[in-house]
Amino acid sequence: MERKPRVETGIAGLDKMLSGGFIPGSANLLRGAPGTGKTLLSLQFLVHGAAVGEPGLLISFEEFPQSLQLDALSLGWDLRTLQDQGWLHLYFTSPQVLLKSLETPDSPLAELFIQKGIKRVVVDSVTHFTRLTNDQQELRSIYHKLVNAFKREGATSVLLAEEGRMEAQRTERGHLSFVVDTIIILRYVEIESAIQRAIAVMKMRGSDHVKDIRRYEIHKGGIVVTSTFEGRESILSGISHRVSR
Ligand SMILES: Nc1ncnc2c1ncn2[C@@H]1O[C@H](COP(=O)(O)OP(=O)(O)O)[C@@H](O)[C@H]1O
Ligand SMILES: [Mg+2]
Protein backbone atom coordinates (compact mmCIF):
# COMPACT_ATOMS: atom_id res chain seq x y z
CA MET A 1 0.00 0.00 0.00
CA GLU A 2 1.37 3.37 -0.96
CA ARG A 3 1.46 5.89 1.82
CA LYS A 4 0.21 9.43 1.30
CA PRO A 5 2.93 12.08 1.40
CA ARG A 6 3.16 14.13 4.58
CA VAL A 7 1.84 17.67 4.90
CA GLU A 8 5.01 19.73 5.33
CA THR A 9 4.90 22.61 7.77
CA GLY A 10 7.58 24.40 5.76
CA ILE A 11 9.83 24.52 8.84
CA ALA A 12 12.53 22.05 7.85
CA GLY A 13 13.65 21.22 11.40
CA LEU A 14 10.08 20.66 12.57
CA ASP A 15 9.23 18.50 9.56
CA LYS A 16 12.20 16.35 10.48
CA MET A 17 10.88 16.03 14.06
CA LEU A 18 7.51 14.96 12.59
CA SER A 19 9.07 12.30 10.32
CA GLY A 20 8.32 14.43 7.27
CA GLY A 21 5.35 16.53 8.38
CA PHE A 22 1.77 16.19 9.56
CA ILE A 23 -0.32 13.22 8.49
CA PRO A 24 -2.80 14.34 5.79
CA GLY A 25 -6.19 15.14 7.34
CA SER A 26 -4.88 15.05 10.91
CA ALA A 27 -5.65 17.49 13.74
CA ASN A 28 -2.55 18.98 15.33
CA LEU A 29 -2.40 20.91 18.58
CA LEU A 30 0.18 23.65 19.08
CA ARG A 31 0.48 24.74 22.70
CA GLY A 32 2.47 27.57 24.15
CA ALA A 33 2.46 30.68 26.32
CA PRO A 34 1.66 34.05 24.73
CA GLY A 35 4.55 35.24 22.56
CA THR A 36 6.09 31.83 21.96
CA GLY A 37 5.26 32.09 18.24
CA LYS A 38 2.10 30.00 17.79
CA THR A 39 0.44 32.41 15.39
CA LEU A 40 3.63 32.87 13.37
CA LEU A 41 4.27 29.13 13.17
CA SER A 42 0.74 28.55 11.94
CA LEU A 43 1.09 31.35 9.37
CA GLN A 44 4.26 29.71 8.11
CA PHE A 45 2.30 26.45 7.72
CA LEU A 46 -0.28 28.30 5.61
CA VAL A 47 2.25 30.29 3.58
CA HIS A 48 4.09 27.05 2.79
CA GLY A 49 0.78 25.48 1.82
CA ALA A 50 0.25 28.26 -0.70
CA ALA A 51 3.71 27.55 -2.13
CA VAL A 52 2.94 23.87 -2.64
CA GLY A 53 -0.54 24.47 -4.08
CA GLU A 54 -2.63 23.80 -0.97
CA PRO A 55 -5.13 26.59 -0.18
CA GLY A 56 -5.32 27.56 3.48
CA LEU A 57 -7.74 29.14 5.92
CA LEU A 58 -6.92 30.96 9.15
CA ILE A 59 -9.84 31.23 11.55
CA SER A 60 -9.00 33.82 14.19
CA PHE A 61 -10.88 34.95 17.29
CA GLU A 62 -7.99 37.13 18.33
CA GLU A 63 -6.31 39.17 15.68
CA PHE A 64 -7.87 41.29 12.98
CA PRO A 65 -6.74 40.50 9.43
CA GLN A 66 -4.85 43.82 9.23
CA SER A 67 -2.83 43.01 12.32
CA LEU A 68 -2.06 39.47 11.07
CA GLN A 69 -0.97 40.91 7.75
CA LEU A 70 1.43 43.28 9.50
CA ASP A 71 2.89 40.54 11.74
CA ALA A 72 3.41 38.35 8.69
CA LEU A 73 5.01 41.16 6.73
CA SER A 74 7.63 41.59 9.46
CA LEU A 75 8.69 38.01 8.70
CA GLY A 76 8.62 38.62 4.98
CA TRP A 77 5.26 37.08 4.07
CA ASP A 78 2.84 38.99 1.92
CA LEU A 79 -0.53 37.59 3.02
CA ARG A 80 -2.45 40.19 1.01
CA THR A 81 -1.10 38.86 -2.28
CA LEU A 82 -1.77 35.25 -1.28
CA GLN A 83 -5.33 36.26 -0.38
CA ASP A 84 -5.80 38.03 -3.72
CA GLN A 85 -4.52 34.94 -5.52
CA GLY A 86 -6.95 32.72 -3.60
CA TRP A 87 -4.29 30.71 -1.73
CA LEU A 88 -5.15 32.11 1.66
CA HIS A 89 -8.36 33.05 3.42
CA LEU A 90 -8.57 34.94 6.71
CA TYR A 91 -11.80 34.50 8.64
CA PHE A 92 -12.26 36.66 11.72
CA THR A 93 -15.15 35.41 13.84
CA SER A 94 -16.28 34.30 17.31
CA PRO A 95 -16.24 30.76 18.78
CA GLN A 96 -20.08 30.74 18.84
CA VAL A 97 -20.42 31.69 15.18
CA LEU A 98 -17.76 29.18 14.15
CA LEU A 99 -19.54 26.33 15.94
CA LYS A 100 -22.83 27.27 14.31
CA SER A 101 -21.26 27.35 10.86
CA LEU A 102 -19.73 23.91 11.38
CA GLU A 103 -23.18 22.51 12.05
CA THR A 104 -24.74 24.12 8.98
CA PRO A 105 -23.78 22.44 5.70
CA ASP A 106 -24.59 25.53 3.62
CA SER A 107 -22.91 28.12 5.87
CA PRO A 108 -20.44 30.52 4.21
CA LEU A 109 -17.62 28.67 5.98
CA ALA A 110 -18.65 25.24 4.71
CA GLU A 111 -18.94 26.72 1.22
CA LEU A 112 -15.49 28.23 1.53
CA PHE A 113 -14.05 24.77 2.18
CA ILE A 114 -15.66 23.30 -0.88
CA GLN A 115 -15.36 26.19 -3.32
CA LYS A 116 -11.78 27.14 -2.47
CA GLY A 117 -10.56 23.60 -1.88
CA ILE A 118 -9.14 24.36 1.58
CA LYS A 119 -6.47 21.80 2.51
CA ARG A 120 -4.93 23.52 5.55
CA VAL A 121 -6.82 25.19 8.37
CA VAL A 122 -5.71 26.98 11.54
CA VAL A 123 -7.81 27.98 14.58
CA ASP A 124 -6.33 30.80 16.70
CA SER A 125 -7.07 29.87 19.42
CA VAL A 126 -9.12 26.94 20.72
CA THR A 127 -8.60 28.28 24.25
CA HIS A 128 -11.58 30.57 23.55
CA PHE A 129 -13.89 27.54 23.56
CA THR A 130 -13.16 26.97 27.26
CA ARG A 131 -15.13 30.16 27.94
CA LEU A 132 -18.28 28.80 26.30
CA THR A 133 -19.02 26.22 28.97
CA ASN A 134 -18.02 24.94 32.38
CA ASP A 135 -19.15 21.46 31.52
CA GLN A 136 -16.27 19.07 30.71
CA GLN A 137 -18.37 16.79 28.53
CA GLU A 138 -19.77 19.65 26.55
CA LEU A 139 -16.32 21.11 25.98
CA ARG A 140 -15.03 17.78 24.80
CA SER A 141 -17.93 17.46 22.40
CA ILE A 142 -17.16 20.97 21.05
CA TYR A 143 -13.55 19.91 20.39
CA HIS A 144 -14.77 16.76 18.65
CA LYS A 145 -17.18 18.74 16.51
CA LEU A 146 -14.40 21.09 15.44
CA VAL A 147 -11.84 18.38 14.68
CA ASN A 148 -14.35 16.15 12.88
CA ALA A 149 -15.63 18.99 10.72
CA PHE A 150 -12.10 19.61 9.41
CA LYS A 151 -11.46 15.89 8.92
CA ARG A 152 -14.68 15.57 6.97
CA GLU A 153 -13.45 18.29 4.61
CA GLY A 154 -10.14 16.44 4.25
CA ALA A 155 -8.19 19.39 5.65
CA THR A 156 -5.13 19.14 7.89
CA SER A 157 -5.71 21.36 10.91
CA VAL A 158 -3.49 23.18 13.37
CA LEU A 159 -5.22 24.22 16.59
CA LEU A 160 -3.47 26.82 18.70
CA ALA A 161 -3.83 26.74 22.49
CA GLU A 162 -2.69 29.29 25.04
CA GLU A 163 -0.77 27.77 27.86
CA GLY A 164 -0.35 29.62 31.12
CA ARG A 165 1.71 28.54 34.11
CA MET A 166 -1.32 26.82 35.58
CA GLU A 167 -2.41 24.87 32.50
CA ALA A 168 1.06 23.37 32.09
CA GLN A 169 0.56 21.34 35.26
CA ARG A 170 -3.18 20.97 35.57
CA THR A 171 -5.17 18.30 33.78
CA GLU A 172 -6.69 20.10 30.90
CA ARG A 173 -10.43 20.71 30.80
CA GLY A 174 -12.23 18.92 27.97
CA HIS A 175 -9.23 16.64 27.36
CA LEU A 176 -8.22 18.25 24.13
CA SER A 177 -5.03 16.17 24.03
CA PHE A 178 -7.09 13.04 23.50
CA VAL A 179 -9.02 14.56 20.63
CA VAL A 180 -6.02 15.58 18.52
CA ASP A 181 -3.52 13.40 16.64
CA THR A 182 -0.38 15.41 17.38
CA ILE A 183 0.76 17.69 20.18
CA ILE A 184 3.59 20.16 19.75
CA ILE A 185 4.64 22.41 22.58
CA LEU A 186 6.51 25.69 22.53
CA ARG A 187 8.21 26.91 25.71
CA TYR A 188 10.42 29.66 27.00
CA VAL A 189 13.49 28.32 28.79
CA GLU A 190 15.78 30.32 30.98
CA ILE A 191 19.41 29.32 30.66
CA GLU A 192 22.21 31.33 32.27
CA SER A 193 19.89 34.34 32.60
CA ALA A 194 18.92 34.33 28.95
CA ILE A 195 15.58 33.32 27.50
CA GLN A 196 15.68 30.69 24.80
CA ARG A 197 12.84 29.01 22.96
CA ALA A 198 12.20 25.26 23.04
CA ILE A 199 10.01 23.06 20.84
CA ALA A 200 9.02 19.41 21.36
CA VAL A 201 6.65 16.92 19.75
CA MET A 202 4.84 15.25 22.65
CA LYS A 203 2.59 12.86 20.79
CA MET A 204 2.00 11.78 17.21
CA ARG A 205 -0.69 9.23 16.51
CA GLY A 206 0.16 6.61 13.90
CA SER A 207 3.72 7.76 13.38
CA ASP A 208 7.19 7.81 14.83
CA HIS A 209 8.57 11.21 15.82
CA VAL A 210 11.71 12.75 17.25
CA LYS A 211 11.56 12.91 21.05
CA ASP A 212 14.32 15.52 21.45
CA ILE A 213 13.63 18.98 22.75
CA ARG A 214 15.07 21.48 20.31
CA ARG A 215 15.84 25.16 20.19
CA TYR A 216 14.02 27.38 17.74
CA GLU A 217 14.40 30.98 16.68
CA ILE A 218 12.11 33.49 15.03
CA HIS A 219 13.73 35.42 12.18
CA LYS A 220 12.76 37.27 9.07
CA GLY A 221 11.96 34.38 6.73
CA GLY A 222 10.31 32.34 9.46
CA ILE A 223 10.87 29.95 12.32
CA VAL A 224 14.09 27.95 12.36
CA VAL A 225 14.49 24.84 14.50
CA THR A 226 18.11 24.33 15.53
CA SER A 227 20.09 22.23 18.02
CA THR A 228 19.09 20.12 21.01
CA PHE A 229 19.77 21.28 24.57
CA GLU A 230 22.89 19.19 25.09
CA GLY A 231 23.88 18.55 28.67
CA ARG A 232 20.79 20.06 30.23
CA GLU A 233 17.91 18.47 32.04
CA SER A 234 14.33 19.43 32.89
CA ILE A 235 14.07 21.89 30.01
CA LEU A 236 10.30 21.70 29.82
CA SER A 237 9.63 22.09 33.53
CA GLY A 238 11.10 25.57 33.39
CA ILE A 239 13.79 24.67 35.94
CA SER A 240 16.61 23.75 33.62
CA HIS A 241 19.95 22.73 35.10
CA ARG A 242 23.28 21.53 33.80
CA VAL A 243 23.84 17.77 33.94
CA SER A 244 26.90 17.09 36.08
CA ARG A 245 29.34 14.64 34.60
N1 LIG B 1 10.11 40.06 12.64
C1 LIG B 1 10.37 39.35 13.75
N2 LIG B 1 11.61 38.92 14.01
C2 LIG B 1 11.88 38.21 15.12
N3 LIG B 1 10.97 37.88 16.04
C3 LIG B 1 9.71 38.28 15.83
C4 LIG B 1 9.33 39.03 14.68
N4 LIG B 1 8.01 39.27 14.74
C5 LIG B 1 7.58 38.70 15.89
N5 LIG B 1 8.59 38.12 16.54
C6 LIG B 1 8.50 37.39 17.82
O1 LIG B 1 7.42 36.50 17.72
C7 LIG B 1 6.75 36.40 18.96
C8 LIG B 1 5.25 36.55 18.77
O2 LIG B 1 4.80 35.48 18.01
P1 LIG B 1 3.27 35.10 17.99
O3 LIG B 1 3.16 34.06 16.94
O4 LIG B 1 2.42 36.31 17.87
O5 LIG B 1 3.10 34.44 19.42
P2 LIG B 1 1.80 33.75 20.05
O6 LIG B 1 0.80 33.60 18.96
O7 LIG B 1 2.29 32.46 20.60
O8 LIG B 1 1.35 34.66 21.15
C9 LIG B 1 7.28 37.48 19.84
O9 LIG B 1 8.03 36.85 20.86
C10 LIG B 1 8.18 38.30 18.96
O10 LIG B 1 9.36 38.60 19.66
MG1 LIG C 1 -1.12 34.43 18.78
Keywords:
245 residues; alpha/beta; Rossmann fold; nine-stranded mixed beta sheet; two-stranded antiparallel sheet; 9 helices; 11 strands; 33% helix; globular; binds adenosine-5'-diphosphate; binds magnesium ion
Task: Describe the model.
Helix content is 33%, strand content 27%. It has helices at 12-17, 38-51, 65-74, 79-84, 95-103, 108-116, 136-152, 165-169, 176-179; strands spanning 27-32, 56-60, 88-92, 120-124, 156-162, 182-191, 194-204, 214-219, 222-228, 232-233, 241-242. The chain has one domain: 3-Layer(aba) Sandwich (Rossmann fold). A hairpin with a 7-residue loop joins strand 10 (232-233) and strand 11 (241-242). It is an alpha/beta fold. The termini are far apart. A 9-stranded mixed β-sheet has the order 3-2-4-5-1-6-7-8-9. The structure holds adenosine-5'-diphosphate (ADP) and magnesium ion (MG).
- Beta-strand content estimate: 25-35%
Mean pLDDT: 92
Rg computed from alpha carbons, rounded to a whole number of angstroms: 18 Å
What's the overall geometry? globular
- What is the count of distinct domains? 1
CATH homology superfamily:
P-loop containing nucleotide triphosphate hydrolases
Biggest beta-sheet profile:
9 strands, mixed
Largest sheet, spatial ordering of strands: 3-2-4-5-1-6-7-8-9
CATH architecture: 3-Layer(aba) Sandwich
Continuous helix count: 9
CATH topology annotation: Rossmann fold
Beta strand count: 11
Distance between the termini: 48 Å
SS class: alpha/beta
Helix content: 25-40%
Task: Please write the string of helix (H) and strand (E) elements.
Answer: HEHEHHEHHEHEHHEEEEEE
